[in-house]
Amino acid sequence: MSELEGKAALVTGASRGIGAATARELAKRGVGVVLAARSLDEIEAVAAEIRVAGGRAEAVACDVGRYDHVMAAVTRCQEAFGRLDILINNAGVIEPIGRLADSDPEQWGRATDINFKGAYHGLRAAIPVMVGQGGGVIVNLSSGAAVRAMEGWSQYCAAKAAVLSLTRSADLEYRDQGIRVVGLSPG
Q1: Count of CB atoms within 10 A of residue 2's CB?
Q2: If phi over 0 gives left and psi between -120 and 50 gives alpha, with beta otherwise, what is residue 13?
């Protein structure tokens, strides 16, 4: 029996890539998973695949740039599985790529809403639930770009550096209440 058996997780950006793979792996280990992404059709397909394989999965449309959407996903996890033990803050976008003087402020702002504020929204929505339960784990996906600037990637590098700092702050603030907040920088 897995030590994760019976736990419940919310995975953002779960329609493909790391998010979908993480949701599948958690479900294999007995975790009830809520998959969240903007593309409902894609996450419903992944959730259906998990259920066919014997796992427990729900899908919810969620724009992490909007706190109300993230709060609704947390609520859905509680309704479906009775709790929220794990949050995987995975949602992110690469675009816009381009030099600063050529960048579009609207695109930059939208990417910031997803790449940085999305992680904050996840933390803000999940922490009170986890404190009430006596603990939990939050994994924020960052990147090597957080500590290594790349030409044309100013938004992504800055946002991932902010997520790295936010992760450290959240862990410091809540580890004494049983919440582990850790960062993962794939690649």
Answers
A1: 11
A2: left
User: What angle, rounded to 10 degrees, do the helices at 118-133 and 154-174 form?
Assistant: 20
User: Which residue, chain included where needed, has tokens 């600063």?
Assistant: 100
Q: Quick one: pLDDT at residue 1?
A: 58
> Per the structure block, which two tokens stand in for 159?
């946002």
Residue 156: φ, ψ to 5°: -60, -45
How far apart, in whole angstroms, are the C-alpha atoms of residue 37 and residue 132?
26
As a whole number, mean pLDDT of residues 59-74 equals: 97
Q: Please, how many CA atoms are within 13 Å of residue 33, restricted to the half-sphere of its CB?
A: 34
Question: What's the pLDDT tens digit per position in 101-139?
Answer: 999 999 999 999 999 999 999 999 999 999 999 999 999
pTM confidence score: 0.94
Cα separation, 148 vs 104, in Å, equals 22
Structure token digits, residue 52? 């066919």
Catalytic residues: 156
Give the C-alpha separation, 122 to 69, whole Å: 10
Which of 28, 76, 24 is closest to 46 using CA atoms? 24
* Alpha carbons 49 and 63: distance in angstroms, whole number: 22
Mind listing the pLDDT tens digit for each residue in 146-187? 788 889 999 999 999 999 999 999 999 999 999 999 999 886
